[in-house]
Protein 1
Amino acid sequence: MRSTDVVIIGAGAAGLMCAMTAAARGRKVLLIDSSNKAGKKILMSGGGRCNFTNMYAEPANFFSQNPHFCKSALARYTPWDFIAMVSEHGVPYHEKKLGQLFCDNKSKDILNMLLEECAQVGVAPHLDTSVHQIEKTEAGYQLDTDLGPVAAESLVIATGGLSIPTLGATGFGYDVARQFGHTVLPTRAGLVPFTMSGMLKELCTELSGTSVACVVSANGQSFRENILFTHRGLSGPAILQISSFWHPGDAVQINLLPDHDALEWLQGQQSARPDSELKTVLGELFTKKMATLITDTWFASKPMKQQTPAQLREIADRLSAWQVVPAGTEGYRTAEVTLGGVDTSDISSKTMESLKSPGLYFIGEVLDVTGHLGGFNFQWAWASGYAAAQYV
Ligand code: FDA
């Protein structure tokens, strides 16, 4: 029987941070992952450049049934702590926008940094290693693994959520939580593109690849960012953000003219360019293709002087408050995160330890804590991994 102080299941963002920090405290750590590579999501993240944190991360950027849960861990390991490590390792980075920090080169700079930190304190992830059974013992936990039986004082579940099964996502963490009496709140895909049907899908397909700055709103939340038309529907940062607040059947409102009072702008155009067609006028703001397509689909394209005040108002309303009812989302296949998960009511916000089973810890995305788009989800993984590492 192999014996160790701490077993961490999941060598992703949270698991690696927890492993290097606990081992640096002198704890003997065994890090296990069923995948053939550690940190696959880190490698895929940020379009290959890993948006590894957000300088302005604060509790308001996270949702959870208990919005207070994330506060303590986020306060004890801030974006600046992670930035300090990134700088120490000489990893070049930049702010893309809105406090979002990305690697200048490749995401693998971040993964290599974490693996190096682990190696320095004697931790190497055991890959392609599954855990078949977990039992509570007097001294801690006993696991039946591909490495044989393992006993540990502390067990950390860092297996993430359900998004992108091809990157190693499994529901393992939720099963362990249930085994030890925890509630798992309903899960759904978050930060995910919308799919459309019928005419809307045709419009999106025609405009596929077009990106427009918008304000997108649903259920009392609004995000100002770009939307992207795709062959299946709508994506882009504004859509990914709002998808986390959307439920099937909800309408999403899109303001395609966020920098203008739509009616005033149209009236101004009518005075300045009475003989220009609507599609030509809209070509000032959108690509020619988009201006033509939305005019032909939604309005009558005629010279501006022929648009009646009522018609101008109708055009303004449509452009500033386009109502869209998505058919659905692309689901876990492409979602960046999983909403819901292990209920935080039975977890200590200070230590991440289970209040139901001493010595059992949950960190990262497996918990019911989800960040907005923009580096917040990694910040949660780092902060929760660091918090648990002080106590395991
Ligand atoms: P994570 O998913 O990273 O790690 C879980 C680990 O557990 C994996 O290595 C997996 O193989 C392993 N595992 C699963 N089941 C197991 C089992 N049964 N046994 C053993 N091991 C098991 N966030 C952000 O802040 N900035 C960004 O730029 C992006 N970009 C991005 C792009 C894409 C395509 C995705 C899918 C996601 C993002 N994210 C992101 C979100 C971010 O990747 C995510 O929130 C964190 O990786 C979560 O970290 P965890 O360590 O909790 O899980």
Protein 2
Amino acid sequence: MSNGATLDRVLVRAPGKLNVFFAVGDVQPDGYHDVASVYQAVSAVEEVVATPSDDFTIAVTGSVDLQGVPLDDRNLAIRAARLLASETGYAGGVHLVVDKHVPVAGGMGGGSADAAAALVACDALWRTGLPVARLHDLASRLGADVPFALLGGTAVGTGRGDQLSPALARGRFDWVLVTDGEGLSTPVVYGELDRLRAQRRPDIAPAAGDPVVDPHVLQALRAGDAATLARAARNDLQEAACALRPALADLVADGIGHGALTGLVSGSGPTVAFLAADPDAAAMIGERLAEEGHDVRHVHGPVGGTRVVSAS
Ligand code: ATP
């Protein structure tokens, strides 16, 4: 029972993301790439419950295929909890129960959302009360997409994607996600992009020295204009993901044939996000794709960032 000094249970929600724009710069000497990204948090949401424990343990459930989710110290949520404990000197541990609704290894930042949720949940459970700026600092040490999962909404990310500035967005964007197929490894997709660029293929966008966001994307988001967003949206990793998984290119064409305004591989894939004109159009596109046997879900964005839903 909580007595005001301690908490027994904290429930936190954290959103998955889509990249509505993703430009990738040249590979850096350390193997990383600078990017210019526009993130949108979407209504595929992870729930994390934190309860007190002497150790750091985790259980995972959810509506997505959970294969590939580690249940030990490799799990990003556990790494987040351990990092917070070591930074604050907290001597105890936590048991985390993660309810996953973001496809695993789908380029939608599910692990990053779990890490953000674990940071916020443990900070509340342990009453360590870190200022937001320090939480963001810990988040960026855990992974490039973790700070955005904390922030949510719509944001431009530069550097490794973790230097964030919030962007204005009006209205609601409806997306149909196709999440079938095994996950794609992010480093492998970047490696394929480097390989394709080295071949100077005409269909591959060359590396921008200093990648920047196309202003048309930001205008479309500010105006809440899905058709304009569809024309300006772009992901430099898309060709690489399609080269590794040729069925993705057919899937994109298929969804557009069913009325989607565009089909974007999300991050490093293999989730494909189809932008629809409105919720009814999304429902229809989703139905057609499901009839063809695809694993489909309808989400919308932008939604808010990581937040405590209940604490007792
Ligand atoms: P990224 O682009 O950050 O590699 P993603 O968004 O494509 O990731 P995630 O669902 O975050 O996909 O998982 C990527 C990999 O991270 C998984 O294959 C898994 O091995 C590992 N992982 C670690 N912690 C988690 C977690 N809590 N949930 C899912 N995967 C996790």
Protein 3
Amino acid sequence: MEEKREIELKNIPTRASEQYRNFPMVPRVVYGTGSFDQLGDILMPKRRHSEAPMIFLVDDVFEGTALLQRVPTIFCDRIILISANEEPKTEQVDALVNIILADFNELPSGIIGIGGGTIMDLAKAVAIMLTNKGSASEYQGWDLVGNPSVYHVGIPTISGTGAEVSRTTVLMGPDKKLGINSDYTTFDQVILDPNLTQGVPKHQWFYTGMDCFIHCIESLNGTFLNAFSKSYGEKSLELCKEVFLGENSPLESREKLMMASWHGGMSIAYSQVGVAHAMSYGLGYVLGVKHGIGNCLVFQYLEEFYPEGVSIFKDMLQKHAIELPKGICANLSSEDMDTMITVALGMVPLWENALGENWQAIITRDKLQSIYKKI
Ligand code: NAD
Ligand code: ZN
């Protein structure tokens, strides 16, 4: 136990001056409107044989739509429709893996996630767990995955999380909400087709887009910042401002947000997120509030930490006439509030990035409670 903990700590993303991380990037990416139709050709050389299927995990919002007809299934390939109403859970990953292992004689040739952060994270986790024993919950943490994953492809249909480029898959486990951070998590192939984000409802577009905006603000204002993260973060922030405060054609807006998400993800790969994400994890853990909206709910009250970012965020809210829900924490029991604060405070690297090594002197339980109570 002691040894495992040590390994975990050593690999937790920390300030760059202490350790330069050798992190993987997505080795192959296709970008362009209509590029989704190249999927069949891309997968063909990865098919081991006809008994080793491609498994397509697809957001069930696409049930009965033309997109589903365009999924290039052959042989014994399977499409599994999945609801993105709740964030992915370790037990859901385990169940999917068990179904796939029971239904096929061979390991799949590939796992293809088509959807938002929820579906892409599931695809990453399933690809890992097909070749690693036990439950997904045993791998939540840093660099606990021993075996390379099955070939996996990410195809975002909503932009903002950066899950298409990141080295993690965020899962709700039995006792924590934490990513499987590993070199085997990153996709082998990504297809960025800005046409796929066409049908996203406005509020969801805003919340997931703000996840990207908040990644930039937290990365650019963090103590872990370095020229690598800054270059991606600045580009992403510029694109977010154009998308949410400028004038664009619908296609331009989709194209820019898709690339903002990519750059935002690259920016945090070599730095960290900050206060909004730490507190949003607490909201997600206790109340099931989803990542994008959770970040927005917290971020609006973080003027003290990110004055400029919060002011821009409020302009964006106003421009798009978004009213954030209120009273989310109003009826929280003191036990739940305590848990929420404990979960948030547990995100140590995020606090270190946001506030420096002495973050504990700045952030107290009372302080967090006073912010949560406003939400
Ligand atoms: P999501 O995948 O949860 O989807 C949000 C909603 O949009 C769903 O109702 C979904 O059905 C719908 N939707 C998606 N594409 C659509 C389309 N083209 N048309 C119509 N509706 C569409 O949203 P998200 O914000 O992308 O993902 C959130 C998840 O991502 C969380 O679970 C979070 O933990 C995770 N996340 C992961 C990372 C990472 O690096 N791995 C980073 C940030 C967030
Ligand atoms: Zn995020």
Protein 4
Amino acid sequence: MKDWGIGAPVLRVEDLRFLTGSGRFIDDLAFPGMLHCVLVRSPHAHARVRRIEFPQDLLVFTGRDMEKDRVGPMRAGWQVPGMVEPPRWALARETVRHVGEPVAAVFAATRARAEDAAERVSVEYEPLASISDVCFRWTRGDAAAVEAAFAKAAHRVDIELINNRLCGAALEARGVIASGDTLYCATQAPHHIRSHVCAELGLRETELRIVSPDMGGGFGYKGKHYPEETIVAWAARRLRRPVKWVAARQESFLSDTQGRDHRTHAVLALNEEGGFLALKVNTTADLGAYVSTFGAAIPGPIYSALLAGLYRTPAIHIEVTGVFSNTVPTDAYRGAGRPEACYVLERLVDKAAFALGLDRAEIRRRNLIPRASMPYKTPIGPTYDCGDFPKVFERALEVADYAGFAARKQSSRKLRGIGIACYLESSGVAPSRLAGMMGARVGFYEAATVRVAPDASVTAYLGTHNHGQGHATTFAQILSERLGVDFQNIRIVEGDTAAVPVGTGTFGSRSIAVGGSALEVASRKIIAKGKKIAAHLLEAAPADIEFNGGKFQVAGTDRAVSFAQVAGAAYVPHNYPLESLEPGLDETAFYDPPNFAFSNGVHVCELEVDPETGATQLVSYHAVDDIGTVINPMIVEGQMHGGLAQGIGQALAERTVYEDGQLLSASFMDYALPRAGDLPEFRCETDESQPCTHNPLGAKGCGESGAIGAPAAVMSALLDALGVADLEMPATPHRIWQAIMRE
Ligand code: MCN
């Protein structure tokens, strides 16, 4: 196996720093004269703020102070057509709409003092009844074609599902520090945060620098714009002192955006042989109290685009109703719309298999889109550029020994089940033009600069953000491969708008497909310029120069100059074509993908349930994923493991519970995360036979794959083990035991 460059399982260069305690996270930062901010948050789900009172010796700001300074409302980053977007203020002005909404900001020299001071702020509320209202309706597909297909169908199978609301649980809580013109902010999307905060504070983007340093996980929810960013940036300017806010763990539950929360009714029409004829999906998605940054996009355009999955269903229609409720806003959480789509489809397909008396593998086999149909235009919009779904499917069944399951079940003393999930992931939202037509207020390109130093060491600057994905390693692998520069001589810079002037960020598994592609294009520009410099040095025509193994060579001769010689000549241009070429070796590329990169895969989960207690033990989990060209197989496997753990958590344990707008699961005593002992040894492999056809690396994203396939695979296995038709996530021992008792 290769030990460097693209395809090599290179150890992560960032880990030495982290493992030796040299990371630099938000809470590690402090500035002279810094004040600590603590927020007074609403205890009510819905209330009018009557009066806010506090002793004169306290330093407290309220929404009125921000209003006087003309701080503008927070706006969503995506406005689905027809969407209602009520104003959202960083500090509430008249009304609070969810428990945890910030009402007043209290400042003191230490955090403890700020916490004590916050206790002395008294807020008089007039509680209001909780409400629910429609924010948007979003449809896709051809309703008439679906009705016509249903009229002719031999079978019709329908299902009602809840996709449980989840919350993110990164090791490091969110945090923001403002100092001078810099906002240090643990965010996945520094450039987006700059735009949002500047728009609200009336600043030019050149007046605010965002630095997102090392970050202990983001999982999608740290990619969104939050009130605290505006509050802290504004307060620091007003107080002329650095200001720091870091969330306490319970605050995270009350203020971080949450994920999923769908109610869906779906119906599948089939012919005699189990062929899918039409699919009708009706989903109600809870957006919470306000439209968060991508809060409407995730259940609208993103989720609905994936409802064809890996299947050739000729007619599909989907209607999504986004509704407000008096809860924390929802937004992206690892998978973001795709696990929801996968869950609907796979549960429905399992149910159809059951209704028709077909094996669950067989019904899928009959309906998978064959490779020969690529590129495949789905009836709901997207066109898949490539993929060999049947191959990935058969391989997954083979590695999981699906055929041998019956024997294993027979020899099991518990309730044993096997489950299959076929998933599709639209990595890297694209293209900007199409997203714009669907309401996006931002672009979806990525920018990369490759800067070669005079000594031929290389720094690359990207608009993406590394918060656990290993970018410092994988991006360096790409450059090392392309430029022939030693891996140790490459440095990757992300997360600082002063160093990286433009960018989009890391979410939607876009970093490799979009950021990596921008990097690839920038490195091609470096080589193109290097060829011109080399041609001059070698007194040859640029067209005759080849770049191979780190050397620029006159084709067919042994005359060559090294990459280092070319870099040296670029910066000490003594022998250099200055009349036709600028000095320097420094190139930037913007890359706006023409399409999503469609990662896909098939997961097979096997488990046993203890009939006495309802406890589930996963026995094995096999995943075969097509993520196109793999840059670092070790990192990809780690990404899969993390995603799988989150997906399994959704299936078996995690659930955000509200009662009358009060959050009942606001601690890790009440919100159950999966632990290492709950997880089996994962067996993951990739299929690289179908590289993405439209990006220059051929790579498709993998960061969310595990979280997309796992809930459906685990639930499929559980239903099989229990022999029941319905069971809700999270399938806790209690719920499972109740299901057993009902039988
Ligand atoms: N990779 C690769 N070959 C491929 C695809 C990816 O080697 N064909 C590598 C990439 O180079 C990168 C990593 O795998 O180092 C993930 O790449 P990608 O799929 O592009 O995903 P992103 O880097 O854009 O990460 C975002 C994705 C999302 S959306 C969430 S949420 C998420 C995740 O990744 N949150 C994470 N993985 C996480 N991992 C950690 N540790 N922490 C989080 O918060």
